[in-house]
Amino acid sequence: METFEAHYDSMCATIRKRMPNADMAVIEQAVEYARNKHKEQKRKDGSPYIIHPLAVAEIVVEMGLDTDAILGALLHDCIEDTDASREEISNLFGSSVAQLVDGVTKLTRANFSSTEQAQMENLRKMFMAMSKDIRVVLIKIADRLHNMRTMQYQTPEKQISKCRETMDIYAPLAHRLGMQKIKWELEDISLRYLDPADYNNIMSYLNAHKEQDEAFMNTIQNTINQRLTSIGIQNTSYGRIKHVYSIYRKMQTQDKAIDQLYDIYAFRVIVDTIPDCYNVLGHIHDLFNLVPGRFKDYISTPKPNMYQSLHTTVIGSQGIPFEVQIRTWEMHETAEYGIAAHWKYKQGAGEGNERDFEWVRRLLESQQDSDAEEFVQSLKIDMFDDEVFVYTPKGRIVSLPAGSTPIDFAYAIHSGVGNSMIGAKVNNRIANIDTTLNNGDIIEILTSRGAKGPSRDWLNICKSNQARTKIKQWFKKEKREENVAHGRSAFEAEMKRVGLPLSITIDPEVGPQLLKKLSFDDWEDMYAAIGYGGLTAVKAVGRIRDDINRAVKAQANDKLTASPLRTVPDSEAVKRNRHIVNGVIVEDIDSCMIKFAKCCAPVPGDAIIGFITKGFGVSVHRCDCPNAAHRDDPIQSARWVRVRWANESAQPFETTLELDCITRDGLLLDVATTMTTARVRVKELFGKDLPGGKSIFTVKFEVADVTELDAIRNKLLNIRDVVGSRRGQN
Ligand code: MN
Fold this sequence. Notes:
Bound molecules: manganese (II) ion
Shape: elongated
CATH architecture of the largest domain: Orthogonal Bundle
Radius of gyration: 40 Å
Oligomer: single chain
Largest sheet: 6 strands, mixed
Number of domains: 6
Number of helices: 31
Distance between the termini: 90 Å
CATH superfamily of the largest domain: Hypothetical protein af1432
CATH topology of the largest domain: Hypothetical protein af1432
Strand content: 15-25%
């Protein structure tokens, strides 16, 4: 059984070697504190629990982090597994240590599982996002490494799930952080549990060839060493077999047996300076035969994870190819410990997260390939806190902007889910729909077919553009009448607030100009837009404010200059003229918006009737329009009003005719020519073929009144193969 003393001594020895300046007094205090807290607990193998934090701390020391990180490692399981609190740790060891322990605890509690391969990157991002401080990630990796080393005491199920997680998250992170040594160890242990048969195959092959391999490696090593010593280059060189998992991967990807594998030997030459590296390279190529195409200069072009070395593959007199890696001691340190190796450069730069992150950012920004770019993104998330990762009940990860709520989540799943949402569960508890989501939360959206749809408040609650857009779309589509009413009152209130006359909007001259400025075809559309949130009332009024003021001023001037010249009109005529809007007089209503119904497109001369719309204004229909057929119904009758054409109307009216035709070449041209000859302004003209050699032509044009319309219709009916006509919809 392992003992406290053995682990404690081992950790202290490593501290003396790797971090001689560490504060031993406080480290001893933390060891005592943790030992006391974990007093009653045992590891699965029966040894005292404290040896785990000691071992984790030792790994952190090997990485070369700082005293706070060592304390964080020693205390990393205290909050989770004992009665220790963050406050207590903060009081005893400082807030920065407490923050590290708290960060590790959060990662321990989080469930990093996803069944989908495509989600692994999100999983790793979530891990990073939850960590906040890169030291938390490093302590957690150390924690996992020690747990992997003692994996034999776990149940088979636990072994498999932990090893999967290690392969999915911890090994890739160690790789990206440049911690080659830890990555290899994590992979090899995982493989042992995940594919024991292949693992054992490789191991027994390697064991069986051990003597042979060692003899080979010794020969090569001696050859290299002799040459370098003879020319006076200080060096440390040694050979090794590549790690088991990389051999396993090579066998898989190259589909080869282990004895067919090309390069399982790697030699390292570590020297003092970069010029020495290139110098050594020359001598290696002189001693052995170069394998073409295998030379890589990672010194001038470092790998994204900061790795630097020269790589070359050569063949010796035995005919066995092997790789040689040439690097300086500093590069070697970086290759072994990655990001952690750079920790010491930061020492003395002062405290504070920002500075901590500064060098990580610099480092990561220097990473260039796409893989790394994504990783830079993920670390930036960590640093800038702009994303949150949550789970669906089925374990799919959804990434949302930081601060998102269940509303954002629901619309991220599907707009149908959002629109029928009636509530939400966060981590299996009913939660308010404005709850801020945290990394790792599991969100379940409660929906109902009878849901009333989103509320307007949601637009203020949700954080994602996606949710906002979808909610707006819903309002746009589902609630036109309500939008128009809502938007209209908002618009009127704003007009009132800034002191503009509402009547100007229905002024026959100014009104259409204002609409054009607002880029709408009619006022109802504009009100609807305000209603669903596509446009704010303040913005709308702001856009037309100057025009209105100008128009009001101009009208006041007109009155002053025009009135003396005019004959005094009788009061009845003045009154009646005020009623004329768009060439139509609405009886009994003093001033209102007029629009022509698109369904029947009335023109002067048509018998017409007006309908008071719920949104705004009077819509004018032809008396024979199907939509006006039920105007005598008691429910509707109050909203139908009598309207008539004003005689002096000069404005053109748009109307549409549909022509039934027998299909033939040149017919479209004939129709167009007829319209041109009649000097009619055509707005649209198109034909559509129907089955059985028939077609329908639709022509939209401007007329002054129904007399002109009938004249044109007759001309069109005179064209050969035009067999019928009817008034269409505009
Ligand atoms: Mn632990």
